[in-house]
Design a protein that fits this description.
CATH superfamily of the largest domain: Alanine racemase
Radius of gyration: 24 Å
CATH architecture of the largest domain: Alpha-Beta Barrel
Number of domains: 2
CATH topology of the largest domain: TIM Barrel
Distance between the termini: 56 Å
CATH class of the largest domain: Alpha Beta
Number of strands: 20
Length: about 450
């Protein structure tokens, strides 16, 4: 418990924040530099299309795919990739990742149909609560593409067994598991301790070819969670799988959840201790004063993820089983694929402006807590000024940022919010305003 007077509590909380969150403001300037190199082309695009709009950054998307595949191809030869559609289902993004040799990870029948229509040849169908009707339609679609059904429960196994017997159609399947490291994620899959029991039951289903095991992480900043989970899977396989069962294991899918390296951050008042400070300040009727403007969200370069996961496979799984490895990157692939482009429509004050866009573009109040570099393309600057960029929705939480790389802010200035390719377009909604269109900025 933090004790002391108000100033002492402020000091202690700021010290805690600084010690527990990386804060290197210069880390994200390369994002701004990349945007400024494209500035003239973005301005030209905005001259042809009314703002606001999503800017599809072809170069940013292809660079993310290249970096990810280069790292994992070298570390885990033969690895197969399945892009997590839920992170960004825009047709251009889907077709681009498919063209770059990735399959698609889908979590619903709607996504499955979209993946097939986009040209996907390999698909993993994962997710809880699949209905019998959805599963039956998916089984019928299995001739259109290679579909691997990652079963989520014993109940789903029963449904699939009944459906495949009725249709007399063979399918490939895996099973999703969760371990002691998954915490609240135990909503998904079966407990690891029940894997061998599930495998034997699935092996008795005449039309289900059980081939693999899938796990999934979320918001991982380093490879340690994957190492822990793969170690536990190896121990379970060694203890509970006989030689025949090990021979039938064709793949292990270690999921996605990779947090992009130096791509964004968060405001101090969005942290638990930061909220405590704000509550104290509100009680004392004074503004909160934080030592830092924002913190860079900590993560490691993707090469470190690849090397760490590969080392875990070599140490724990290679002595037990030989199989293929799958992964399901989403956010790390598409975060650079889209930016938000908008204009200043009203200057309320030097530190407060209204944009012609609303946070219906991202679907929720993301920027109240999260930080991403914002760039004024009309009056750019390497330095940030303090300026609240409000959206034009009738909602006080409609905010795009607290700071902007700008020399000044004027009406009609063109402004870009960076790195909104993951879980922004997906979550967009027709709230007060319609969802804007998306336009492509091609690679040079």
């Amino acid at each position: 418990m933090i004790r002391g007077g108000h100033r002492e509590i402020q000091r202690k909380i700021n010290t805690f924040l600084r010690a527990n969150a990386k804060n290197e403001p210069g880390d994200l300037f390369p994002i701004v530099e990349d945007i400024l190199r494209k500035k003239d082309r973005i301005i030209a695009l905005a001259a042809r299309h009314a703002t606001p709009f999503y800017l599809i950054d072809e170069h940013g998307l292809h660079e993310s795919v290249r970096e990810f595949k280069t790292a994992f191809d070298a570390a885990i030869p033969g690895i197969r990739y399945f892009f997590a559609m839920k992170s960004n289902p825009h047709p251009f993004v889907l077709k681009a990742v498919i063209k770059n040799g990735m399959g698609i990870d889908v979590s619903s029948l709607r996504e499955l149909k979209t993946a097939i229509q986009s040209g996907a040849k390999s698909i993993v169908y994962t997710g809880p609560g699949k209905t019998a009707a959805e599963l039956e339609t998916a089984v019928k679609l299995a001739s259109s593409a290679e579909i691997i059904f990652n079963m989520d429960s014993f109940g789903e196994l029963r449904k699939l067994n009944e459906i495949t017997k009725k249709l007399r159609k063979k399918i490939k399947a895996g099973v999703r598991i969760y371990s002691k490291y998954h915490g609240k994620w135990n909503k998904f899959g079966i407990p690891l301790e029940e894997l061998a029991t599930f495998w034997r039951a699935a092996s008795r289903a005449p039309y289900i070819d059980i081939q693999g095991v899938q796990i999934h992480m979320s918001w991982t900043s380093n490879y340690a969670p994957y190492e822990d989970a793969l170690k536990d899977i190896a121990a379970h396989l060694e203890k509970n799988f006989d030689k025949k069962m090990k021979g039938c294991l064709k793949f292990i899918d270690f999921g996605g959840g990779f947090l992009p390296y130096q791509a964004g951050g968060f405001h101090p008042w969005g942290t638990p201790v930061g909220k405590c400070l704000k509550i104290i300040d509100d009680y004392n009727q004074q503004p909160s004063k934080f030592r830092e403007k924002y913190y860079i969200r900590g993560s490691r370069p993707i090469g470190e993820f690849a090397a760490g996961i590969a080392a875990a496979i070599k140490k724990y799984l290679d002595p037990v089983v030989r199989c293929e490895y799958f992964c399901e990157p989403g956010r790390v692939i598409c975060h650079r694929s889209m930016h938000l482009v908008m204009k200043v429509v009203d200057v309320k004050a030097s530190d407060r402006v209204i944009m012609d866009a609303g946070i219906n573009m991202v679907g929720w109040e993301r920027f109240l807590e999260e930080y991403y570099p914002v760039v004024n393309l009309t009056h750019p600057s390497a330095k940030e000024i303090t300026c609240r960029l409000y959206g034009s929705l009738c909602d006080p939480r409609d905010l795009f940022g607290e700071y902007c790389h700008a020399s000044r802010m004027e009406e009609d200035d063109l402004v870009l919010v960076t790195n909104q390719g993951a879980y922004a377009y997906t979550l967009s909604q027709n709230f007060i305003k319609t969802i804007p269109r998306a336009f492509l900025l091609k690679k040079e």
